[in-house]
Write a structure and sequence with these properties.
Acyl-coenzyme A thioesterase THEM4, alpha+beta, cytoplasm, lipid metabolism, 1 helix, hydrolase, single chain, about 30% strand, HotDog_dom_sf
């Protein structure tokens, strides 16, 4: 279960809120939101992608959109777990450290159907000084559709 009180993306500093996939201040973006679960052990995102994001097979989600969902959700997950690792809470006043993708590996297991809730569950498998390794699973209709592993790195605020 998700704790939908604070989306991690809503705690990004002003400069970092314009991502097309997850930026709250990008008017044309998707506004993907990632939330820690109740006990803070996982981060969850849910989205129903618009029909414009179909792949070569019309009833399935485009693989590039799957990668974008993993990308945005994974960096938010990395930011959350690094924040938590420092002993900090996620609050409405948080300005969380920002992470970017250094590496993203995706295993496509099954086609992801259009018109369904896509749920991504993520957790950190390693938290280092500047990098966090994130493991993710994507589900639709309660079936595993894809898995991903991300190496995310912290950026400096002046990047």
């Amino acid at each position: 279960m998700m704790n939908k009180t604070i989306a991690i993306q809503d705690t990004y500093g002003e400069r970092f809120q314009h991502c097309w996939g997850c930026g709250p201040k990008n008017e044309n973006g998707l506004h993907l939101k990632s939330y820690p679960n109740e006990d803070g052990s996982e981060v969850i995102a849910e989205i129903v992608p618009d029909k414009a994001y179909t792949g070569g097979v019309p009833q399935n989600l485009f693989g590039g959109m799957i990668a974008m969902i993993f990308d945005c959700h994974g960096t938010a997950t990395a930011a959350y777990f690094k924040h938590k690792d420092k002993g900090l809470e996620l609050t409405a006043d948080t300005v969380i450290g920002r992470f970017i993708t250094a590496r993203l590996e995706i295993d496509f297991k099954k086609p992801t159907p259009m018109g369904e809730v896509v749920k991504v569950v993520a957790k950190a498998s390693e938290i280092g000084e500047r990098k966090v390794i994130v493991e993710m699973q994507m589900f639709a209709k309660d079936e595993l559709r894809a898995k991903a592993r991300m190496v995310a790195v912290a950026i400096k605020d002046n990047m």
